[in-house]
Amino acid sequence: MIQELLILVFWLVLIIIAAEIFTNAIESLGAKLKFSEGVTGSIFAAVGTALPETMVPLVAIFGGSSAHVREEVGVGAILGAPFMLATLAMFLIGVSVWKFKGSRKKDFLAPERGGFRRDMEFFLFAFTLSFLVAFTPQEYRLIRVFVAILLIITYFYYVLETVKASAALVKDGHATEESKSLYLGVIFKDHMAIVVLQLVVALGLIIVGAKGFVHGVEALAEFIRIPVIALSLLIIPVATELPEKINSILWVRKGKDTMAVGNITGAMVFQGSLLPAIGIFLTPWTINVTVVASCTITIAAGIWLYFMAMRVKKLTPAFFILNGLLYLAFVYIALTAGRA
């Protein structure tokens, strides 16, 4: 047991180091391309760190040991990632604001509101549609395919809208700025090729660290005998998503709130649209009580975040407590339903 925990700590430290290298490269990339912090956080950082997790449901769907495992782990990993981001990850953002309020010189979160609202609008539309289509009969395959295609189109429209808003945001003072010089710039000349090289190296280290972390968590889950659906909805998303969202915590510490929030909400849009489209195409896309609870809580957390983006002028850490409570509520539901 102690050995397994020490291995998890090793992989977590590797991920933290890689996340620091990644955020440094992402900031340099966004600055060189003259993109806004919204584009850098919601698209570059969000998709970059979400790509490794995308492989988890695909591996489960194509390589699962049984149809039952393939469906539960595949669908659970797809729907569990947005759930974890909307609840636990956002709660940790609030905790980070409180923890670093001294170095930040402010005790509230101040992301660019237009991008925050846009991310939540697209996420709520795509994820709710993904959830509702699961209630359609299996023989209505044409409807399901149509919804899957609509989800893909929705994400690419989201990317276009985010990039379109970038120029105006840069003029308003939301351009991506480098908080530190490029790390590899100490050895090589700081130009685009070196930025991309550092980005690839950092992403590679994150993938290696995340895979090691996943294997360690799966071994621990097997040791304590957690049900498959609980593993796919709770353990896998936390193991694959949360370590890489350390990028957001690092940005909160530096006062780069737009990139910190965009890294999470952008990943929510990506994983609430493209991944469900894959699930609808490749699995029966059926649901059970645990999945319904997960999706309902995810949508509730998304509505709460949208309310904060629209109505709350000063986003203090207290507003993110509800996100943490929603996560704990589902943990209880998943574990009790698994034993029932």
SSE map:
Elements: H1 2-32, H2 37-63, H3 67-99, H4 101-104, H5 113-133, H6 141-164, H7 166-171, H8 192-223, H9 228-241, H10 246-253, H11 257-282, H12 289-311, H13 321-339
Q: Can you give a write-up of this model?
A:
By secondary structure, this protein is mostly helical. It has a single domain, classed as A middle domain of Talin 1 (Up-down Bundle), CATH 1.20.1420. Helices cover 79% and strands 0% of the residues. The protein has 13 helices and no strands. The protein has helices at residues 2-32, 37-63, 67-99, 101-104, 113-133, 141-164, 166-171, 192-223, 228-241, 246-253, 257-282, 289-311, 321-339. It is globular, with a radius of gyration of 19 Å. The mean pLDDT is 81.
Largest sheet report: none
Radius of gyration: 19 Å
What is the second-level CATH architecture? Answer: Up-down Bundle
* Percent of residues in beta strands: under 5%
Strand segment count? 0
Helix proportion: over 70%
Class by SSE composition? mainly alpha
Name of the CATH homologous superfamily: NCX, central ion-binding region
**How many distinct folded domains?**
1
CATH C-level name? Mainly Alpha
SSE order, one letter for each helix or strand: HHHHHHHHHHHHH
